[in-house]
Each structure stands twice: as C-alpha cells, then as structure tokens.
Design a protein that fits this description.
The protein is an all-alpha fold and 155 residues long. The protein has helices at residues 2-10, 17-26, 29-51, 60-89, 94-97, 104-108, 115-127, 133-143. The longest helix has 30 residues, at 60-89. It starts with a helix and ends in a 12-residue tail after the last helix.
C-alpha cells in the first residue's frame, strides 16, 4: 500500500529549469503562439456569447445551458493543454514570447479538478521567474478557492 502511495505521489520526473529553457528555445514559436492565441480567443468567445442572449427569449435557458456546457468543455481542453505547455516549456508569458497573449487566463478559468495539478506548477514557474508576482497571486488565489483578495497572497 505504501509503495502505491509513494509511486503515485512521485509522478513523472520534472524537467530542470535549464531543460525547460532549452525546450522553449527549440520550439516552433509561431505555431505555439497561434495555438495559445486561439485558446485564449475560444476562452473569451464562450464567455462573451452568454452576454448576447436575450434573457426574455423562450429558449434562453436552453441556449444558456448549451453555452455553459461548451465553455466547460473548452475550459477542460484548454487547461489540459496549458498544463502540458507549461510543464514542458515553462509559463509562456508575454515577456518570454514577445507576443501580447494572456495565457494566464487559461489557468484562471481552470476547472477545480485541475487545481491540485496547477498549484505546484505555478509555484515552480514563479520561483523560476517565468511568472510575474501579479499573475502568481491571481492564479494562486484562484486555485486556493478565491478566498479573500489576490493582493493578500504572500510572495
């Protein structure tokens, strides 16, 4: 029983900061940036579509529920992918990419079942200085249940 716990808690070996930076330098940046831009765009698309619904329409609830379901599915897909990207290449912030992309929003909208996986990742990225303090505070606040205010998170 102890062996199973130990094996499950260890997970896969984490790359070093040097390996992460090397992988980041070797990737096809334009392809990845376009993927991130599309992920962020889809994230906002499903959230903004709900605002355009006529609340007095007969089918409002059906359309709203459909959009919420699509948004939830998109959040799962985006969260899995931003975790993969960040694990392998580090957090792709705009300082690193040189692109005005906001990938933090993908973590910010991550479903609760991913929070335990995200927590050590944002710690690693903040400590490696690939994530700024404002983003770190916001994401840590989110994955810890949105209690209080992000500015109250200690660095």
């Amino acid at each position: 029983m102890l062996f199973i716990f130990f094996t499950a808690s260890c997970g896969k070996p984490q790359p070093t900061d040097e390996e992460i930076e090397k992988a980041f330098q070797e990737i096809n940046n334009e392809k990845l940036w376009k993927e991130l831009e599309e992920m962020v765009s889809n994230d906002q698309y499903y959230r903004n579509q709900k605002n355009g619904l006529d609340k007095n329409a007969k089918d409002y609830q059906i359309k709203r529920d459909s959009l919420i379901k699509l948004r939830y599915q998109n959040d799962h897909t985006n969260t899995k992918r931003i975790i993969e990207i960040t694990e392998k290449y580090g957090f792709p912030n705009s300082d690193r990419t040189g692109k005005p992309i906001a990938p933090w929003i993908l973590f910010h909208h991550a479903p609760v079942e991913y929070h335990d996986q995200i927590k050590p990742l944002i710690e690693r990225e903040f400590n490696a200085k690939r994530m700024d303090s404002n983003t770190y505070r916001l994401l840590k606040w989110h994955v810890n249940g949105r209690i209080g205010h992000p500015d109250e998170i200690e660095l």
